[in-house]
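Notes for week 9. Today we move from apo structures to complexes. The key idea is that a small molecule is not decoration. When we ask for a structure prediction with fe (ii) ion present, the ligand SMILES becomes part of the input, just like the chain. The input block below holds both the sequence and the ligand string. Read it once before you look at the output, and try to guess where the molecule might sit.
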Amino acid sequence: MKIAEMKEFLSKRLKEKRYKHSLGVAMTAGQLAKRYGVCVEKAEIAGLLHDCAREFTINEMIEQANKRQIFFSEIERHVPILLHAVLGADMLEESYGIKDLDIKQAIRFHTVGGANMSKLDKIIYLADMIEPGRDFPELAILRRRAEENLDQAMLLAFNQSMQFVLKKNSIIHPDTVLARNEILLKG
Ligand SMILES: [Fe+2]
Ligand SMILES: [Fe+2]
């Protein structure tokens, strides 16, 4: 499937606002890929499709995950919306003809991160947070950091999202902690 066809297909499946967000993530991911020497096409496709499963209802997400024999922990049971990442990755081939494992992994990791993230995974995680349609306090500094240093930008992104989760008294996913610690242990 060509990118234009993917866009057409996706635009029919997502609400306008989320489709626009997806275009923003694709564009930002492409720019970051160029900056950090990663395949621009893969970044654009992963960015475009990262939320392709985001508009299932909660019940549909659980149903789909069961149908696809996707294992999910107590945390996903508690916060089923997290499943859209792994579901999106699982649907890529049947819905969009994408077999590329790098793209699949980047989509799988885009919500909470994970251990051993590739450059592409980090780019998609960041692009999701900083695309032009986003607006939250401290976004400007994250955007600047993303242009300077990929790992330092990830550290800041994890810090910001963990602070957000803490303020809401919500659960911190252990994969986010793993990914964040990895950067600190390396540095
Ligand atoms: Fe998402
Ligand atoms: Fe997103």
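Residues 16-36 form the longest helix (21 residues).
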